[in-house]
Amino acid sequence: MGFAGEPDIPVRADEQILEEVTAGLAADGALDASRIEVSVADGEVRLTGFVDTAAQTREAEDRAARPLGVRHVRNDLRIMVPGEPIATETGH
Length: 92
What we know:
Number of domains: 1
Order of helices and strands: HEEHE
Structural class: alpha+beta
Mean pLDDT: 87
Low-confidence stretches: none
Strand content: 15-25%
Largest sheet: 3 strands, mixed
Shape: elongated
Distance between the termini: 44 Å
Number of helices: 2
Strand order of the largest sheet: 1-2-3
Number of strands: 3
């Protein structure tokens, strides 16, 4: 049960949420899901990787929030600039 005024969010296994988020991103033909990494910890989804447009970052976040049990989505997607090399999180 949540605090007063907070909605109750069902608890689900992170693996279930990960599968649903990954499938939802792959089902969207406008997104290249192969460039998006998804991780889930305690119902919190984190998106990393690259997309082509700002609209795609929003679409990916919306899709990631849909599965039952998602408590929060951290959207760390970056817009890929044509001709720029893809940087890793470590900078190498």
